[in-house]
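Recap from last week: sequence in, structure out.
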Amino acid sequence: MPDTFSSGAFYLEFDRAPGQVTALECAFVLRDQGKFSRLSQTEFASHLTTVRFAYDTNTCSGFPEISVPPPGTAPRHRKAPENGWVFGAKFRCCVVEALQGVAPGDLTKLAQRHMKLMKANLPMAAFEAEFCSATRDLCDFLRLTHERPAQADNASLDRNVSCRTVRRRFQALTGIAPKRHHILSRFHSTLPALARNDQSLSDIAYACDYSDQSHLSRDFRRITGHTPQQLSKLWQAHSVRFVQDRAPASTLRLAISFD
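Predicted structure tokens:
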């Protein structure tokens, strides 16, 4: 795996740890000096709600800037490159309301954990353990202040309801219609194979339930703002590692390093 802490910029993605809400998809850490965000002025469309805590490099202290991008069907354009640290989590349910109007004191414990992660050059195992605790703090905060994540865990639909009711309930819980959710989820399943660059686009398309390669390419351009070939070349120019098997107990599943 790349030495992320000596890299100019890196992105780490972690699976949810035991005890965290099942509505959590994953958690991530980004340290960017404009390298990631300068290369691409768009962020992928996603079926997930993302909670982001951003700290500017020049002011890595105090309360972070909080943003909660909801699920979206089109790429989002960045207004400016990132320049600092971002700690975040991606949820399969709506969590926007839980973080609207949050007072700085409500997330003091979480911000303190972020400060420790930014200021200390921790070994990867220690960094992962500390970040897992920070993610658990976030999940606990959401669970206490807003019940929708917990509801999403236990949500069940009656067998005798109409398709329209199912769609309405699904959208209320996830923030996106079922069909769009499936399209975006299917697209995200292509990314590991594309980053590894060990299969043809045609093979990836059939493995991920696309009708053919052109179907994958159309969806890919619509969702990312890039063609599959453009993104593959970009990733191959840098260090991309899928590291689920790095250690049996590890939750780290992806590392991207830009030197």
